[in-house]
Amino acid sequence: MPKLFFWVLLSGLLSFQTITTHLIASTGKITGEKLKDYKGKTHTIRPKGKAVVYLFLSPECPLCKNYAPVVQAIQSKYPEIQFYGIVSGKTFTREMVGEYAKDYKISFPILMDPDKQVADYLRATVTPEALLIGENGREYYRGLIDDWVTGLGTKRAKASKRYLELAIENLLSGSDLTYSTRPIGCLISNY
After folding, report:
1. Which residue range is the domain that position 46 belongs to?
2. Which segments constitute the Thioredoxin domain (predicted)?
3. Number of compact structural domains in the chain
4. How high is the pLDDT of residue 46?
5. Which of 7, 75, 132, 134 could form a disulfide with 83 if both were Cys (CB 3.0 to 4.6 A apart)?
C-alpha cells in the first residue's frame, strides 16, 4: 500500500509542476506576466510560439558572475530560444543590474521581479537557477546550468555535464524528455 501511495503522490506532483509552468507559458494567470528590464523596457515573460529559458540571477552572487559568460555563450548558440535573466526581490536597483549586465557582457534581457511574483510562481529558490519551458508551456528542465559546481564553495576543475544545453538540444530535436537537477547557489532574497 505505501508504494501505491508514493506513486500516486509522485504522479500528482509531476502533474502540478507541468500545470504550473504551463500557466505561465500559455494562460497568463499571474499578475507578473510583464516585467521591466533594468532599462525600463517592458517584456512579456511568456512569449508565444517560442521556447524560453528563465535564468534566475543575482548581481552579487559569485556563481552568477562566474556563469555569466557561460550562459551568454549558450544564448548565442541557440538564438531560436528566448532567454530571460530574472533578478527577484527588492535588494538590487536597476543601476546595479545594469552594471552586472555591462560588466559581464550579457545581451539577453535581464528583468526585474521586485515582488518575487515570477520567482515564487515558478518556485525558483536560488541563483543561478535555470528553467527551460517549451513553446507548448511544458517544463523540460529545471536546475543547474552544468555540473561545474558540486556544492557551495566547491567545484570541479571543469564541467563535464552541460545540463541546460542538453535539455535545449533534446527540446529542439523533438524529444519529450523532461528532467531536473537540484540547483546550488545563493538564496533568492526575500527583500
Report:
1. 2-187
2. 12-169
3. 1
4. 86
5. 75
pLDDT means over runs of 10, the chain (191 residues): 41 42 42 84 89 97 96 97 96 96 97 94 96 94 96 88 97 94 90 63
- For residue 55, which of 15, 135, 137, 113 has the smallest C-alpha distance? 113
CA gap 55, 97 in Å, rounded: 14
Question: For residues 160 and 150, what is the distance between their CA atoms, to the nearest angstrom?
Answer: 12
Cα–Cα distance, 104 to 64 (Å, whole number): 10
CATH number, domain of 124, equals 3.40.30.10
Distance from C-alpha of 151 to C-alpha of 184, rounded to nearest angstrom: 6
Tell me what pLDDT residue 191 has.
Answer: 63
Angle at 186 between CA 15 and CA 92, to 5 degrees: 105
What is the β-pairing status of strands 179-180 and 139-143? parallel
Residue 47 pLDDT:
79
Alpha-carbon gap, residue 8 to 56, rounded angstroms: 31
CA atoms within 13 Å, Cβ hemisphere of 143: 20
pLDDT, position 24: 46
Strands of 115-157 (E only): list them.
Answer: 126-127, 129-133, 139-143, 149-151, 154-155
Report residue 176 as a C-alpha cell. 519529450
Report the candidate in 31, 26, 23 with the shortest Cα–Cα distance to residue 47: 26
